[in-house]
Design brief:
This protein has eight helices and eight strands. The protein is an alpha/beta fold and 219 residues long. Strand 5, helix 5 and strand 6 form a beta-alpha-beta unit. Helix 3 runs parallel beside helix 4. The longest helix has 17 residues. The model has no long low-confidence stretch (mean pLDDT 94). Bound molecules: NADP nicotinamide-adenine-dinucleotide phosphate. NADP nicotinamide-adenine-dinucleotide phosphate binds next to helix 1.
Amino acid sequence: MNIGIIGGTGPLGRGLALRWTQVGHTVYLGSRTLPKAKQVVDEMGSVLSDGSYMKGELLPASNEEAVTNCELAVLAVPAAADEEFIRQLKPALQGKILIDCTVALDPNDVTHVPPAHVATAVNLQSLLGRHIRVVAGFHTIAASKLAKLEQTLSDDTFFAGDDPEAKAAAMGLATEIGLRAFDIGSLEDAGTLKRITAMLIGLNKRYKRRAIGVKLTGI
Ligand SMILES: NC(=O)c1ccc[n+]([C@@H]2O[C@H](COP(=O)([O-])OP(=O)(O)OC[C@H]3O[C@@H](n4cnc5c(N)ncnc54)[C@H](OP(=O)(O)O)[C@@H]3O)[C@@H](O)[C@H]2O)c1
């Protein structure tokens, strides 16, 4: 599949890009500036050529090119990215699936999501309209864990969305890289995921860890 990562130059975008390239997808690593995307892909070249076998291809792109060339896009920018930024990508996103990974943490306390920001996936869906199917997911996976290709992933991860087909596609992309994917319900439920991310950041701080994840039992 062709995957476009909006904000692919950040830790989360890079980590997902590596994992998806490894299993055979063509990944367009998007940035607001093409030179930055090229620089990051060049830097990632050392990981890609260190013996880790990559079945797919990783390509630098502007965010617009990443979205135009993909079948499924991933939003991996800070939640503070303004509406105009998203609106500019709307024409190229028509008919596609968009996975929203963003978490709007409180800048004064990153272990907390301000209540007004909990339902950002719902706001995103209404901004984009029904021809772009938004799924919320990958919030509870630490980028640092994704980047360690020598480590097999085994975390559980959770998806919220209103379109079953879009949600299944997003969950498939998680399963392919070793994660166990669970459907937690409608897009409204994405707020729960964002709060869990804030909880995990708090746990990392309290227990001096970097990549605490979630594993369900009894299922
Ligand atoms: N890091 C994690 O472990 C993790 C885990 C789960 C969820 N998340 C969430 O996933 C999202 C991405 O995480 P991250 O740590 O990779 O974020 P990040 O490094 O802060 O940002 C990712 C990229 O977004 C672009 N960007 C920055 N400010 C922007 C703006 N105002 N408008 C548009 N693009 C902008 C930048 O790319 P260019 O300069 O190249 O355009 C940047 O490299 C965040 O919302 C985060 O809360 C992160």
